[in-house]
Design a protein that fits this description.
The structure holds 2 protein chains of 2 kinds. By secondary structure, chain A is mainly alpha-helical. Chain A has 22 helices and 4 strands. The longest helix of chain A is centred in the middle third of the chain and has 33 residues, at 296-328. The chains are: A mainly alpha, B mainly alpha.
Chain lengths: 654, 234
């Protein structure tokens, strides 16, 4: 039985604030809930749901193709049970239920849920503090990328051992599909999740995100989604690539449900995160932070949120429709009964291409954010950078069909889409020019974050130029479905996206952990991965130009050499990434202590102390200048100097 | 140290008007995501309607005009046909009543009529329950099953989307009613009732789109559809 204690007021930032009744200890039922109870709830409900479904489903149940339906129903019930049980067990439903019954959260409850005085336990709970959520995102994303990277190693091992086969074709295909979607999800999150959550509120001078509980919701939905993806590998796998084209997806093993449920849940997580980030940026910027004084990284996160918000539902619905076809025998994508596989491809690529920019724009923005700090000069043409981001967002929804040139869908539309795709290279080019312009005549303070920016610019230029070839219909007729395409998108997503994330992590590491990222080990890891990356994917371009198709296990001997080189390169990348990871782990545990603003940055997140207090700023800051006024005389100080001179002259004349 | 004279958030100490502004924007963005999802459904419906792949748009037992094409599958006679249109409009009408009641409750809260707020929110909740029941009855009495062609699939998914929205509305409506009864929504703090009204209005628009599709885009205009992907004899 809870004891109701009447708390009349609480002092919050100097004001006496009336409080609703406090029922029991602060935090209430959330005190007993954590990741462990989430696991128990998820596994427990999954087991119960699967068991009941197995009992209720007649073993003779089959679909129109006489395939047994029992595994489908049971696996779907297990997945649904897992998500609901996990979210129940971690406490995601406590807030909404309290809202319905009118038991409002008190300040003490909110502080408990933000992890105050909970120490390391707060990282295992449904914590609302944006800094904790940022760290949680970082850990989960690194685990996901590690899993996807391991699959990449296995894929390259298979392709490099041209004299034998390690895996069955089905398992090889499954690894390809799982690697692809796991990497895509990981890359979507890798900047926006950790840095968007940890840094953006501080960067705009806010005390937290607009909706702290939604922040925790987006993180834990993401956590709930990942095991479903992994589980699909044990249920027959995702055998038709990360795009799971129809009708192959409907004919695939039951593991496809794992993919579909992952995307459905991840899309909710993305929508929630996008709403939260956009609302925070639009309504909680510090006084004086006009749009021209808002850091470019904030623009990048805002742009990614816009694209995630409008585009992800299309991807989500493509999977809901696919799931309905499989489970309820509808015919959205089954031509036999009036469905269309082109409908799937359109819905899929309506997100599939904007998603490239959801990955690229934040990683580019983080590179642009840190460049002025290490070059001690303003960002070259801030307005061009903003125009580039706006242009990409505006055009991102108009280019999806360039993935479908060769499918036979609307050939007359190929040329407009070719034009729009080539057009989007212009705003992307703006961003590269801004980076180069910022380097121009700058005095580079070459630390680890700036080294990663060099890598980003190099990779992005190669990825961008090869992308222009692929956007051309005649060239795409040759390149489509070849290793050339694989090399191109790895240059964009990994070469620019992941190296950009490495730059961001190295730059913000002192603020996030209070310690420097070990420069020596980190640099060795970075450059090893960079060299390995060039070996792997330049060689893959060659294989593609020679005509090697993608997603093929056994290939002609003429492609052997380029595949051997690619595999050696992949191992070098793996070694580099492990070295970089060891730098992160060791530095986090025992790195050199950093001051609160070790880079001498002018933006707000560095102006508060480290470790960052729960409320970020004791007093909310006021912004009086642009964020990148490095090396430019402060006009206000110049004005004061001239006043001083005037006064001195007047005193002299008297 | 000062004591606020205007309503403030008990968790952050910010004025309720600030929280309301933030929440309003958040809701608009949620609606944007919801609109994108609804557009995906509308695209699916209109795309399949316009293509009529393999003549498989119409349910196999539908009576079509002379120049229309029907699927030849299944080969056995079927009674599956198009749904009656008026229930879509009837359900929309009842939902509009529920929405109007929520708006009444919200307006009452703003004008200090607390009894009006409780009555509006409570009745809105009850009418939403009725909408859910009607929607369920309609879905379970359609003259077709999920496997009866693309039209059947598209209509069933529109209805499933409606049911999902209705469950959300029930949750929100119950919350507004309970909170109104507890005095947590009143003349000085009414923004949650306002947000509920906004969201219900959007859901009405989503239902309206569904009703328009299922009334005016029934028989496919494509009388010469592509035949592929099957082994049926021509």
């Amino acid at each position: 039985m809870s004891v109701e204690t009447a708390v009349e007021t609480k002092t919050i930032f100097g004001s006496e604030v009336p409080q609703p009744p406090q029922h029991g200890a602060a935090g209430g039922v959330m005190r007993g809930l954590n990741f462990g109870t989430g696991l128990v709830g998820g596994i427990g409900l999954a087991a119960v749901a699967g068991w009941i479904t197995a009992i209720l489903t007649p073993s003779s149940a089959s679909n129109a193709s006489f395939a047994p339906m029992e595994p489908t129903y049971v696996y779907l019930a297990v997945l649904l049970g897992w998500v609901v049980g996990f979210m129940l067990g971690i406490g995601a439903f406590v807030g909404p239920l309290r809202w319905v019954v009118g038991r409002d959260v008190t300040h003490a409850d909110a502080e408990y849920m933000a992890g105050k005085d909970l120490g390391r336990k707060r990282y295992w709970k449904y914590t609302t503090d944006h800094k904790v959520v940022g760290i949680q995102y970082l850990i989960v994303t690194m685990l996901l990328l590690g899993f996807a990277g391991l699959l990449a190693m296995l894929i390259r091992t298979e392709l490099g051992m041209t004299w034998t086969s390690l895996f069955t074709p089905a398992f090889y295909n499954s690894m390809i599909g799982t690697h692809g979607i796991a990497m895509i999800i990981g890359m979507i999150v890798v900047v926006s999740g950790p840095l968007g959550n940890f840094i953006v509120p501080m960067m705009i001078g806010a005390r937290d995100m607009a909706f702290p509980r939604l922040n925790a919701l987006s993180l834990w939905l993401f956590v709930a989604a990942v095991p479903m993806l992994v589980s699909s590998m044990f249920m027959g796998g995702i055998q038709d690539g990360w795009s799971v084209y129809q009708p192959l997806a409907s004919q695939a093993p039951v593991g496809m449900l794992g993919y579909q449920m992952t995307i459905i849940v991840f899309a909710i997580s993305t929508a929630v995160a996008s709403v939260n980030l956009m609302t925070t940026i639009l309504t909680m910027r510090a006084k004086g932070m006009t749009w021209s004084r808002t850091p470019i990284f904030v623009y990048g996160i805002f742009a990614a949120s816009i694209m995630g918000l409008y585009a992800f539902p299309f991807f989500q619905y493509s999977q809901i429709l696919g799931l309905a076809d499989r489970v309820f025998a509808t015919s959205f994508f089954d031509p036999l009964n009036g469905g269309s596989v082109w409908l799937y491809e359109n819905l899929f690529w309506l997100l599939g291409h904007p998603e490239v920019y959801v990955i690229l724009i934040p990683s580019t923005a983080v590179a642009l954010e840190l460049m002025p700090v290490f070059l001690r000069k303003p960002l070259f043409s801030f307005n061009f950078a903003v125009a580039g981001i706006v242009g990409v967002v505006a055009l991102s929804g108009l280019v999806w069909a360039h993935h479908m040139y060769m499918t036979g869908w609307a050939p007359a539309a190929n040329y407009p889409f070719m034009l729009s795709t080539e057009l989007i290279s212009i705003p992307v080019g703006f961003l590269v020019l801004v980076a180069i312009g910022t380097f121009w005549r700058g005095t580079a303070w070459t630390r680890l974050p700036l080294m990663a920016v060099y890598a980003v610019i190099f990779n992005k230029m190669i990825g961008g130029v090869t992308g222009v070839y692929l956007s051309d219909v005649p060239a795409d007729q040759y390149f489509h479905g070849s290793m050339f395409v694989v090399a191109h998108f790895h240059f964009m997503l990994m070469g620019a996206g992941l190296f950009g994330a490495m730059a961001g992590i190295a730059y913000f590491f002192p603020k996030m952990t209070g310690r420097f990222l070990d420069e020596r080990t980190g640099s060795i890891g970075l450059w090893t991965a960079f060299v390995g990356f060039q070996i792997t994917f330049i060689s893959m371009f060659v294989a593609g130009l020679q005509g090697q198709p993608r997603r093929v296990l056994d290939f002609d001997d003429q492609f052997n050499l380029s595949n051997w080189i690619s595999t050696i390169g992949a191992y070098v990348i793996g070694i580099g990434m492990l070295i970089f990871l060891s730098a992160i782990i060791n530095s986090w545990r025992s790195g050199v202590i950093a001051s609160s603003n070790p880079w001498g940055s002018k933006s707000l997140e560095w102006q508060t102390e480290t470790p960052v207090p729960l409320e970020n700023f004791p007093v909310l800051p006021v912004v009086t200048e642009r964020p990148y006024n490095y090396g430019v005389p402060d006009p206000y100080e110049a004005e004061l100097d001239s006043i001083d001179e005037d006064l001195t002259e007047k005193a002299g004349t008297k | 140290m000062s004591t606020s004279t205007f309503p403030v958030s008990p968790t952050t100490g910010e004025p309720i008007s600030t929280i309301a502004r933030r929440s309003r924007l958040g809701l608009w963005l949620v609606i944007v995501a919801d609109i994108a999802g609804t557009i995906a459904l509308v695209i699916s419906y209109t795309y399949l309607w316009s293509l009529n792949v393999n003549g498989g748009w119409a349910p196999p037992g539908a009576t079509l005009t002379a120049n229309q094409t029907n699927s030849t599958l299944p080969t056995t006679p079927s009674t599956a046909t198009f749904a009656v249109e008026w229930p879509f409009w009837g359900i929309l009408l009842v939902l509009i009543v529920a929405t109007a009641l929520m708006w009444f409750g919200y307006r009452s809260a703003r004008s200090g009529n607390h009894a009006g707020l409780i009555a509006g929110a409570g009745l809105s909740f009850l009418v939403t329950v009725a909408v859910l029941v009607f929607q369920w009855i309609q879905m379970s009495t359609f003259p077709f099953g999920a496997g009866d062609g693309a039209y059947a699939s598209a209509v069933l998914l529109l209805c499933a989307s409606n049911i999902f929205h209705l469950f959300l509305l029930l949750f929100i409506g119950m919350g507004i009613f309970m909170r109104a009864r507890k005095g947590l929504i009143d003349k000085t703090n009414w923004y949650q009732a306002q947000l509920a009204s906004y969201y219900m209005t959007w859901v009405c628009i989503a239902f309206l789109l569904g009703a328009i599709l299922t009334t005016f885009l029934v028989e496919s205009p494509n009388t010469d559809p592509a035949i592929f992907g099957t082994f049926k004899q021509q």
